[in-house]
Amino acid sequence: MNQKRPLRVRSAGMLTALAVVAGSALAVGAPATAAPAPAPAPAGTALAGKTVFLDPGHQASAAGHRLDAQVPDGRGGKKDCQTTGATGVNGAQEHTVNWEITQLVKAGLESQGARVVLSRPDDRGWGGCVDQRAAAASRSGAAVAVSLHADSTTRGADNAKKGFHLIVPKLPVPDATVSRVQSSEGRKASETMRDAFVKAGFPSANYAGVNNGIQTRSDIAAVNLTKVPAVFLELGNLSNPGEADALSKKDGQLKYAMAVTQGILGYVRGPVASGTTPPSSTTPGTASQPGTSTPGTDDSTADDGLATVLPFVQQLIDSKDPKVILALLSSQGQDVSAQILKAMLQVIYGLFGGKLPIG
Q1: pLDDT in tens, 117-170
Q2: Smallest Cα–Cα separation from 19: which of 346, 342, 319?
Q3: What is the pLDDT confidence band of residue 38, given thresholds at 50, 70 and 90?
């Protein structure tokens, strides 16, 4: 039986990135009134100089505002300013699900040097009409704007309908700039996000005319009005008991956040250029030992990273004591096999440009 070598971490940035994941996941369980934590120092530079706009759909309160106020729909007509958002079969509120997953994604992006702009400041009050959010995304000059939502198909339980989907605009869009951007880069960004979700093991939606994870609609102002590449993501179906459970629990939210972050990285950063992988030090004709894969080499384990790293990450989430978290990161975190940690970093953040300091 082959014996795995202990994992050696050569960079404090790796532990910082893991701490970002654990700390952000723990923050999800904090009261909604807690102030957002300041952005941590970047652990990597994969997204340095890039802006990402994140729109956690809906809002906690419409006090002082009219949800039915009529605003431009991007097609020459009008539509309601906002809606309350869905309520899951388990009682989960869509606006909170969207907000909590967005916070995890924000932490992951910022760990790679991205500037993240949010459409709303918290999950306590008003978040703005749909046209205002689209205008904010356009003003941000973001490399991509991602709207996070969770669908609902019935008031009661719906075990049959499940899965994620991306909504893209019916073309052409009246605004020439929007039509040009969303027909090219917007579609590319949406398909990249779709591919990230499929790779993470999420099924594409089996309802509402969704085809290979993509649904075309003309009534979504977020994509009809936004002048930067827009991704409108329905994470899952809150009417489906299994998906409602996953969308509202910390471990499930972390898995969704991993996939969203990977989708954004895949689009904004693009594929790692060929020829950047360092040569393997393995002697020709011999196989690498488990846990000793050469940094930067192609490893199919990365595709299965979500399934392999979640048990360890769950330990971090379950701990309520910061000292215990730090102990896990500095001790057990270094005992996780090189393949698992490599997969975690690649799938979640794509740290170090695919060249992980492990060995």
Answers
A1: 999 999 999 999 999 999 999 999 999 999 999 999 999 999 999 999 999 999
A2: 319
A3: low
Q: Into how many domains does the chain fold?
A: 1
Continuous H helices in the chain: 12-28, 94-110, 130-140, 176-181, 187-199, 221-225, 241-248, 250-268, 305-318, 322-330, 338-348
pLDDT in tens, 162-194: 999 999 999 999 999 999 999 999 999 999 999
Catalytic residue among 94, 100, 234, 243: 234
Residue 176 domain flag: yes
- Encoded tokens for 214: 């993509």
Distance of alpha carbon 282 from alpha carbon 114, whole angstroms: 36
Contact between 129 and 81 (Cβ < 8 Å): yes
What is the number of other CB atoms lying within 10 angstroms of the CB of residue 359? 15
Instruction: Please give the order of strands across the beta sheet that includes 165-169.
Output: 115-118, 51-56, 144-151, 230-237, 165-169, 214-217
Helix, strand, coil proportions of the chain in percent (round to 5)? 40, 15, 45
| R_g of the chain, CA atoms, integer Å | 21
Give the domain CATH number at 216: 3.40.630.40
CB 158 within 8 A of CB 237: yes
Instruction: Take residue 249 and report the two structure tokens written for it.
Output: 């629990």
In a domain? residue 65? yes
* 252 Cβ contact partners less than 8 Å away, ≥ 6 residues apart: 245, 246
Residue 148 lies in a domain: yes
Residue 42 lies in a domain: no
What is the residue-wise DSSP string for 232-254?
EEEEEETTSHHHHHHHHSHHHHH
Domain of 148, in residue numbers: 47-268
Annotation marks residue 234 as catalytic:
yes
HSE value, Cβ hemisphere, 13 Å, CA-based, for 186: 33
